[in-house]
C-alpha cells in the first residue's frame, strides 16, 4: 500500500495498492497499479504525471522505560521509502493491474479469490478505475530502528517491544549493518538515510 501524491496544483493524497516490477537483473524499474478515474492523476491531460509514492513500514513509540535508562529521551522508530516515478495511465493496463493485484494479495489464501468470481459486476467496477505503470526515477529510504544504540540499550528495547514486525526490522537492520557495539546515545539517535538512483 502506498500513499500517492501527484506533483500537480492542490494535489490530493491517494492510498492505493501498487506492485513493484523488476527487470531480468532484479533492478526495480516500475510500479503497476490502478487509480480512480476521477482522481487528479487519472484525469490530467498530460501523457505522464510525475508523482511521489510513500511506503511506510512498521513504526512505534519507544519509551525511556523500554530503553531501561531514565536519561534517555523517548523516540519514534520507523521505516519510510519514497519513490518518485512518472505515471502513465492506460485503459489496456486496467485488467492486468487489477488481476495482478488481487492475485498477489490472495496468494496465501487456501482458496485464492479471482476477479472472475464477480461475473458481470467486474466490468462495471473496472470502468471506475484505470490502470497505470509508473517508471521509477529515484528511490530513497529512511530508517530509524535503534541502529545507533549500544548493545545493552538495544537489547533492553527489543525485550520490551511488543510489536513483532517492528522488532523483526530492528533486528534485521542490526544484522545487516554488522553492529556489535555502538556508542551510547542520549536523546534521539541520528536517522540514517539511504538513497538509490536506479539506472533505467
UniProtKB/TrEMBL annotation:
Q: Which InterPro entries match?
A: Split_barrel_FMN-bd, TR_PAI2-type
> This protein's superkingdom?
Bacteria
Put simply, this protein is called: Transcriptional regulator
List the source organism.
Answer: Brucella pecoris
